[in-house]
Each structure stands twice: as structure tokens, then as C-alpha cells.
């Protein structure tokens, strides 16, 4: 039913939308939509309610103003309506409410309080005069600083976490956490920790709440953030754990630090952006961890991601306080008060839209409004939508979220507003996993394209859609081979997104696991099977390398022909004869140099009635034990081995020492004497040095040549 509702209205555009008497006619009302409306799609109806100031929630509660009921309404919501006795409207009643209702005035006490506070601060600044610690005028301050919360009640959301932090800081000053050696956990289990780790997304008030809680507990907050150097040496030298304050920045005779914070007898160290410690802060996390273990002052560490690798040393020595993104309703009142003080006319529905676009980042919403204030004092629904889209935070979805959205009924419905680029963008959230998730789950939906069919016609249409989706996935595999092939055509990734993700989903979108379908989305089994295939391929290579002394097949022939032939000789006897066949099986294995590990590989490669699970059940535990013991107790022929495997040290190649490095053996900068080598080569090739070639004697010099040997003989005779 949910897929049918989300696929679109039965008569789109058949009813005229009235012109409201007031642009914020639905302000202060909360709506829940259930069932299928006849002329408006679910997205159009939700946007219409938000456009005119209403708030749309997913489930009805006692605080819900109206439930808009259409055809095929959800049974759980109908039960909630009856239980809470809620008011219901059909589509006509909803449109009539838009055309007749007027806006109600909101309370603006918060704006008056902020204005009174600014006047008081300006008066104090005028009396004290300018100085190094004087704050700038309110008109010259950023909105994020100007409208920062000054009390705990002004913090939006995370009230429970703020109270825990306040109680923990109170235990330092009131109870005996320090005196008891941090052995009494307290009601929240926090008092055994000397430090707290506050984690959560940016812009939700982590640092502000830490400062406010520290001040309320009587501590002087001293902050170190990413703009400060926080290496090991600086952390150790800048903090004095034996005292109740930090003395690294003390200068002159004033009891203030460089930031202008007055040093008291109690200090609280706030380490902001701990997960942002970079290479310049080398050793800072380790030094901070050592400091926490023996500190005598409370330490509050603030980070965006507690799971960061560099924060692992801090996990065991700090108590984790996880902050969540506040709901738009928790932020709306604060932003409306600020807008009213700045004399900006912005409806509540536009504020909700900005908050949702910024993912509850209050700082970003204030920055958007302060920029908008430079050019205009009003903002309508369409302008707010464009501004939120322009400043929208990019968030990475998980593959499960992408698949639920891609295969869900809204993405390809006739009233869908997503463009082809938006659908391709979902693929790029994780281009490696999303196609695998599509391939694993594309057959688990109930397609919206066949919801109005019955009988054989529905079956044939369903088969046709499955065929087209499978064909598109095959095309995607071809494109993927070009992308990850030797040429790496990365420019084909948009085409791969269409073939492997968008086009298959366009055929089989409909009711799935995320929309009440019977089949749950599952993780791709291809990953596990591919890992198993690689492992078995390596093991099969080892089997083929040992068996090649007896057989002549390659790895594929071993897999397809020899292993099925080996099964009746080394596996089947253990199943049928038990321990009596162990000796014969081992003898047959030795003949082909098959080891005990190779036997396990052959069993695991079995298919059909020789599947490994069936074979394992067919062999008793006593037989397996006997087989293993007898195999380990006997000697077996080894096809080939390394000397190290038998406990022998390999012989040294040269007695002169280790082989020289290639760069040392031949250096380009060394001068090479080639002249002598060339002379030697030339002399070796000359015919005078060849014993088989006799050169004729010269005529003019024959007497002189003959006289020389005679003289030498004479001399030789005298010597003799």
C-alpha cells in the first residue's frame, strides 16, 4: 500500500489550490499525512503545508493538530488517531483550511531579552572604557558571537547531555570525586573519570555548553583549539596539573591569561577540536592522555568524530557524551527571536527549511541570515528554499540508504522531481558498493509498474522488467571493465552509474524493505564469494604445482577433470568405510604428492552432491581424527622443498660477505677507464697474437733479425 501511495495520486491536478488569506495561515499547526490523496502527491501536500507555515511530522501523537487521511491509510496511524482522539481532515478539508485560516501572533519575549542584554553590555563597555579585553560593539560582531547562548536554557537541544556535563563538573566542586580518588561512579557513572569527551556534528553547541557549564560550576574555562599549537612539549609545559590553574600564559602582574580570561583558584581545561590535531601537534594526544590520568582539574575534550583513529588513546580515559543534531522545532524559536530582533520578517516554515538544509547547524543558519540581511529584510518560501539549496551541506549516505531511496517508490514516480543528475549523484555516494547493492537487491521489490495488473499479464510484465534490469546490469559490467581495465576510462563513470544503478532501478522500483516490503535489503554476497574464490584459486595453484610430477594438466584441467576423479579415491572411502580406509587413502595421496591441506581444498571445491557441507556431515568425527593422526605420524614424499622448511640454513652464495647493493656496484658518477680495455681488446684481435697465423719476414732486416738471436745465444752460452 505504501508503494501505491508513493507512486502518485490517481487524479493529479484535479483540485484547485486556494489562495490563502495570510501567507502564514498554517503557522503553529502540526500535520501528519497518511494514505493516498486524489489530486496531490505526498511531496506536494507536505510542501504545501510547510509553505504556509505548518509543521509536518511522521507519526501522530497527542500534540498533532490534524491528520490528513487519504485512501488506503496506514492501520497503525489509524489506531493512533483513535487512541489520541485526533482531528482528521480529508484532502478537501486540508485545502479549505489553507483558504480560510489566519496567522496567530507569536511570543517575542526572547527578542526583548536579547535587546536588553546588549544595552546592558554597551553601558558596561562605556563605563570601563577601551582596553585589551574589551569586547567590540554588538553591531560589529558576527551573529554567531553576538547571539551565542548566555544561559543553559538558550541552548537548543541535547538538554539531557548538558545536564550530565553540569552534574559531572559539580561533583568536582561539591562532592568528593577528587578526594575519593575517582572511585565513586555517581548516578550517571561519570564520577570515576577525570575527563569527558563531548562528540557530535559541528554547530550544535558543544563548545558553548562546555563554557556555560564550567562557568556555572564556578570554574574558569581555559580553551585550546585548532588555532593553538598543541604538541607534546607544549601540552606538558603549558599545563600545571599540580596546581588548580594553567600558568603557561601568565604574564606581568595581572592574574589573566593571554586570552584575557581571569585566572581563579579553579580552572577547567577545554580541549576543542581534539580530532583536528595535525602533524604540527605531534605527540599531543599521547601527552593529553597522560595528563588526564593524573590531572587535578576537570578536562573537557571536544571532537566531531569519536571513532577517529587518533582518538583511540582517549577512549578509555574519558567519559563519552554524544550530542545529536537538534530537531528543527528545537531551533525554530531561537532563530525566530533573532530574526524578530533584527527586524526581519521570516515565516516559521522558511526557518525550518533553512535548518533542515543546514542539517541543524545553528552557526550556518545564522551566517545565512546575516548575509541575507545585507540585501533584504524579508524572505518567502521560494527564496528560503533556494538559499537552503545553495548552502546545503553535502552528506554522504550509506549504501543501504542509497538503495532504499533508489529502489523506493518515490524516485521514479510520475510526480518525482529528481532529475537524472540527482539520481546519478546517489551512485557517487559510494560508486564501488552501490552497483553491488543494486545487483543484490533489485529482485526484492514489488514493482510499481505492475501494481495495476493481475494474472499472467502481471507475471509476464514482471519477467520483462527483470530481463531489462539484468541486461542493463550486464552492460554496466562491460563499462566497469573499461573503467578498471588497462586504459582506465574514468570518464565513463556517469555511464556506469546509469547502466548499473539508475536504469535497473527505473524498471523495478516499488515497495521494498524501507517501505514496508516483505524482503529485507541484504549485503552483497558477491564480496564474500569473490574472497572465497581468490582463496580457493591460490590453494588450487598449490595442488596443481605438487601434482604436476604425476599429471600434465594445467590448473583448469586439474579443477575440471582430475579433482572429480580423485574424489572416489581419497574422499568417498572415508565416507563409506570410515577409519578402515584411512591407510589406503593416505597411500593414494602420497602417490600424487597430495598433502592434508590439499585434501581439505579438494573437499571444499566439491559441488552438487559432493558439496563440502554434505561431505563433512558424511564423515564421522572419529574418522577425521584417525585420518589426521595417522597422516601426521607418517612420512610422506615431498615434490619440492625449500631448505628452510627442513630446518637447514641456505648456503651462502659468496664467502666474501653479503651481495653488494646495485647502486654501490655501479655508480653513474664514477669514471670508468675504457682506454686500457679497448687496447687489450685490440691487441687480442691482432693477427700477430694468433698462433695459427705466421707473418712473412721482412727482407731488409733479415740479417739484423738473425744476428740478434745469435748474440743472445752467445750470451746464453756464457751464462751457462
Overview of this structure, please?
With 720 residues, the chain is mainly alpha-helical. Helices cover 47% and strands 6% of the residues. The protein contains 30 helices and 11 strands. The strands form 3 sheets. It has a 5-stranded parallel β-sheet with strand order 6-7-8-5-9, with helices on one face. A 4-stranded parallel β-sheet has the order 2-1-3-4. Helix 10 links the parallel strand 7 (267-271) and strand 8. The longest helix is centred in the middle third of the chain and has 29 residues, at 455-483. The radius of gyration is 41 Å and the shape is extended. The N and C termini lie far apart (129 Å). 28% of the residues are buried.
